[in-house]
Amino acid sequence: MPLVAGVVVLLSSLFLGIPMVVSAEQQTPFQPSSPRQSNHHSHNHNLSIPSIGLGLWNSKGDDAAHAVTYAFDAGYKHLDSAAAYGNEEYVGRSLSPSSKHSHSPPPPRHKYWVTSKLWNDAHRPSLVAAALDKTLSDLSIAYLDLYLMHWPVAFLPDQAPGRTVVDQDTTILDTWRAMEDLVRANKTRYVGVSNFSPRQLDQVLKHCDICPYAHEFETHPYLQQQDFVDWHADNNITVIAYSPLANMNPTYKDKYPKLDPLLEDDFWKGLASKKNCTVAQAVLAWGIQRGTVVIPKSVHEERIIENLGSLNVTFSKDEMREIQTQDKRSRFNNPSKGWGVELFEGLDDGSNRFLATKYDLR
Ligand SMILES: NC(=O)c1ccc[n+]([C@@H]2O[C@H](COP(=O)([O-])OP(=O)(O)OC[C@H]3O[C@@H](n4cnc5c(N)ncnc54)[C@H](OP(=O)(O)O)[C@@H]3O)[C@@H](O)[C@H]2O)c1
Ligand SMILES: *[C@@H]1O[C@H](CO)[C@@H](O)[C@H](O)[C@H]1NC(C)=O
Ligand SMILES: *[C@@H]1O[C@H](CO)[C@@H](O)[C@H](O)[C@H]1NC(C)=O
Ligand SMILES: *[C@@H]1O[C@H](CO)[C@@H](O)[C@H](O)[C@H]1NC(C)=O
Ligand SMILES: *[C@@H]1O[C@H](CO)[C@@H](O)[C@H](O)[C@H]1NC(C)=O
Ligand SMILES: *[C@@H]1O[C@H](CO)[C@@H](O)[C@H](O)[C@H]1NC(C)=O
């Protein structure tokens, strides 16, 4: 028994990147120093995050606006946006009740959830509020439900297009403090992070006054990260699973060319046929059943409707266990080299994880 407990502490210490010092703090390593402050806001609004949302990366121009309208018509109540997607003005055309572009009016604002993200070039505290103001103005809404720090990396502002220079003088905590002020200003109900390593998240949790509501990161059947997902649940941080359909995003197609597109994977095709649903529905249903929020992107009305049908699919415990054996530990989205920074430290297929991925050998 003591041996088992010791191993668990050791493993979780390694995994979470926490020094292995026996102390009171170690028992609750990620407990914030002050009690989690609930967010006060003036909005007549009590929606918690819906378990499925519409992703908006790579949805261009009018396609993005139409996708939002299809999603509302189908019954979606959650959009995953970002300044960096370059389409918030188009998304806003479908959120503005008075828009002449949109065919059907949007639901009342308090009935749907909007997440957006602060881009890396606006991490300086003096730039954070203006970045959110721009997003709100583009989206034609008065407040966000959730504002995420898109990456744990600050870029110098005002660089030539396409040029990225890391800003060594702005820390994650500097930016986080400025994001907390946005909650105080009632411009967003919650704040959170995206693409953080355990060590980076620990840093925020140790010092936050208003603590992260959610962490959005890549996770799907080919990169399950079950221990990391479980850790968030234990700490009341919602996991938003991005790229929930794994390598279906065409920008990922060259990363592990030997890996089947997830929707053509024989295991998943078999499971979907057993459950009498489509492969996308099976994959998304697994994401929801394991407690993550899934945000599949599509610009096609029939797929947007299909993906919502994942809410009707449930798996047995045995099926959930079988799915766990299908992990490939393969990460598709990692700009670490291009940016010259370490990312995903300690996580599967991130830096300092000496576990070769199944498809990365040779
Ligand atoms: N925080 C971050 O750093 C970050 C990073 C990546 C993604 N995200 C968020 O997560 C969202 C989802 O991730 P993602 O866009 O990378 O990938 P995804 O949602 O896993 O997959 C999207 C791809 O799958 C296709 N697709 C969707 N539903 C389908 C279906 N039922 N059948 C067949 N194909 C289907 C889409 O095509 P069509 O559009 O042509 O239908 C698109 O090419 C993003 O849009 C973004 O909002 C966040
Ligand atoms: C935010 O909303 C709260 C609750 O309604 C209110 O007390 C506070 O004055 C508002 N703050 C700002 C800056 O508007
Ligand atoms: C949340 O809002 C709905 C609709 O306004 C209301 O019916 C419900 O009682 C509210 N719940 C809480 C916990 O305030
Ligand atoms: C998570 O929430 C539960 C129930 O509200 C609470 O008992 C627990 O202390 C919370 N844990 C953390 C780490 O905040
Ligand atoms: C399978 O799903 C289809 C379409 O959703 C439905 O028409 C059919 O009745 C289902 N069959 C079974 C055996 O549940
Ligand atoms: C779930 O299944 C029911 C019964 O077949 C159907 O009426 C409903 O539209 C489905 N829900 C979704 C979101 O597809």
TrEMBL record:
InterPro entries: AKR (IPR020471), Aldo/ket_reductase_CS (IPR018170), NAD(P)_OxRdtase_dom_sf (IPR036812), NADP_OxRdtase_dom (IPR023210). Its EC number is 1.1.1.307. The active site is at residue 85. Keywords: NADP, Oxidoreductase, Signal. It holds the Pfam family Aldo_ket_red. The record marks 117 as: Lowers pKa of active site Tyr. GO terms for molecular function: oxidoreductase activity, acting on the CH-OH group of donors, NAD or NADP as acceptor. Residues 52-324 form the NADP-dependent oxidoreductase domain. It catalyses: xylitol + NADP(+) = D-xylose + NADPH + H(+); xylitol + NAD(+) = D-xylose + NADH + H(+). Residues 1-24 form the signal peptide. Substrate binds at residue 150. Belongs to the aldo/keto reductase family. Catalyzes the initial reaction in the xylose utilization pathway by reducing D-xylose into xylitol. Xylose is a major component of hemicelluloses such as xylan. Most fungi utilize D-xylose via three enzymatic reactions, xylose reductase (XR), xylitol dehydrogenase (XDH), and xylulokinase, to form xylulose 5-phosphate, which enters pentose phosphate pathway. This is D-xylose reductase [NAD(P)H].
